[in-house]
Write a structure and sequence with these properties.
By secondary structure, the protein is α/β, with parallel strands linked by helices. The chain has one domain: TIM Barrel, CATH 3.20.20.80. Helices cover 40% and strands 11% of the residues. The strands form 2 sheets. Strands 9-6-3-2-1-12-11-10 form an 8-stranded parallel β-sheet. It is globular and about 75 Å long.
């Protein structure tokens, strides 16, 4: 569905919200952020994928394409349901360390209190959970059993479980495991119910405030996931479940070895044979959960980089044709005007451009990529077209201020001159904060562009440096933990953002 109205939004993941319990949640602080967006006359809140994560905490390597991340369950809402006492809330509050989530502490603190809430379920809640289970029977039983078994075997990689009957999903072994672990399965069903009930309430609140939520679908899923375990025939695996080829991207300007993601690749021919039913279920669920959905690594539908699983870098991969327009024709049969954004960044070619054109979906541009050289490249704002979603940067990029520091002097001077920035004293561009003059010049240039939807990370709204970036691709540690403070959000210059939206007609509230 093409974008037809000018609007703006802010990118911030749920985990980055401030609060009292060690991580951002779906509770009060999330609604406060919705209120802040509404005050700025923004129309969109973009988040990262909401699925449960592995030990590296990457939202793009989830243990399920359908389940929610239970770390985001709000304890105060559980208390409102009568499952926790006020004293128990107080005892579970943790200090809010500046700008980061302590995942180790979080795991240690959340599990006991979630189990306490589970033990106090009322008959009414149990009835609601049964209804939730019935409505989600296409994925929930496999996910709850998979999660239970990963804990029982202390192993997330299902191919390494000691019980090979369960590895290969023999019916008798599955029945026995379900019977043996019935209480643990019920516990995980409860957590998913709590997550989705709280998420639904938050989305409803956002929509009533005029805020639409942009979700995110990673194109690939992790080997260590309920999806690959329960649908192994849909992936390029050997008889033991080990990937034959894995996903990645080839070497480029930013990564001389390429990026080796390690996700198992799809058997697209097998998927096509049943009308891409697993993918259709996935897209249906996403369009229900969000107002718009960004599909990550859209180019993988045109052609994907296939790397032999034995390789340690992505250098020796090769391009393999993806399902192309055949896949999207099926999507459009099911959803005639889907709210989908195509993340078409990375290696560009004619086939990718043609696929994007044929689908009519809006693509993406990143302003931080615009000034790497002085060529008239596609990321320069004067080259944007209306049916685009454009950003200063995304979760994978440095912050705007951090990028300015990392540019060469030539790149930085070019960027600042392009954005109409004038140094009133030497090195003023280095000044950060919500009134950062250099960041504001970039943001203004983005807002002036022809792109109908512009989005900036919360770090750029606040003028933060590279110590607050969300992720650095190619590194395994120190990512995904960035967190805002209440003081940081209260410092946002609401009036400046509102004026910007009204000046450049990115709001319907122009007076």
């Amino acid at each position: 569905m093409p974008l037809t109205e000018r609007a703006s939004g802010v990118l911030m993941h749920i985990s980055s919200l401030p609060g009292d319990y060690g991580i951002g949640t779906l509770g009060r602080e999330a609604k406060d952020f919705v209120d802040l967006l509404a005050l700025m006359d923004c129309a969109y809140w973009q988040i990262l994928p909401l699925g449960p994560t592995d030990n590296c905490h990457s939202p793009y390597k989830s243990t399920s394409a359908f389940a929610g991340n239970t770390e985001f369950i709000d304890l105060e809402i559980l208390s409102e349901w009568g499952l926790l006492t006020k004293d128990e809330l107080v005892s579970n509050r943790s200090p809010n360390p500046l700008y980061w989530v302590n995942f180790q502490e979080l795991l240690k603190n959340q599990e006991p209190v979630f189990k306490l809430a589970f033990q106090r379920l009322t008959p009414e809640l149990k009835k609601s959970i049964r209804e939730f289970e019935e409505a989600n029977r296409s994925w929930l039983p496999d996910f709850a059993l998979y999660t239970t078994l990963t804990q029982d075997f202390s192993e997330m990689n299902w191919t390494k479980w000691k019980n090979k009957e369960l590895v290969h999903r023999k019916p008798a072994a599955l029945s026995q495991a379900i019977k043996k672990h019935s209480e643990e399965i019920d516990y995980h069903n409860f957590l998913q119910y709590a997550f989705y009930r709280q998420w639904s309430d938050l989305k409803t609140y956002a929509n009533t405030k005029g805020i639409k939520i942009i979700g995110d679908i990673p194109i690939y899923v992790a080997l260590e996931s309920a999806d690959v375990w329960s649908h192994s025939e849909l992936f390029q695996l050997d008889a033991d479940g080990t990937p034959l080829f894995v996903a990645g991207v080839p070497p480029d300007y930013f990564s001389p070895d390429g990026q080796l993601w390690g996700n198992p690749l799809y058997h697209w021919a097998t998927m096509k044979a049943d009308g891409y039913s697993w993918w259709m279920d996935r897209i249906k669920a996403a369009l229900k959960a969000f107002d718009l959905v960004r599909i990550d690594h859209f180019r993988g539908f045109s052609a994907y980089w296939s790397v032999p699983a034995s390789e340690t870098t992505a250098k020796k991969g090769q391009w393999v044709p993806g399902p192309g327009m055949d896949f999207f024709n099926r999507v459009f049969e099911k959803h005639p005007k889907p709210g989908i954004i195509a993340e078409d960044l990375g290696v560009q070619d004619e086939a990718l451009a043609q696929l994007l054109s044929d689908t009519g979906l809006p693509g993406m541009r990143l302003m931080e990529f615009a000034f790497i050289d002085k060529n008239n490249n596609i990321h320069l704002p004067h080259n944007y077209t209306p049916n685009m979603v454009t950003y200063t940067g995304t979760h994978d990029n440095n912050t705007l201020l951090g990028t300015l520091f990392n540019y060469t002097p030539e790149q930085r001077n070019y960027a600042l001159k392009y954005c109409g920035y004038l140094d009133t004293w030497p090195d003023q561009w280095q000044v950060g904060g919500p009134q950062s003059p250099s960041c504001r010049s970039f943001i203004r240039s983005l807002w002036q562009s022809a792109a109908n939807l512009v989005i900036i990370p919360i770090q750029d709204v606040c003028g933060y440096g590279d110590d607050t970036r969300m992720n650095q691709p190619g590194t395994a540690r120190g990512n995904w933990s960035f967190r805002m403070t209440k003081e940081g959000l209260s410092s946002v210059d609401i009036l400046w953002m509102k004026d910007l939206n009204r000046l450049y007609h990115r709001t319907s509230k122009i007076k």
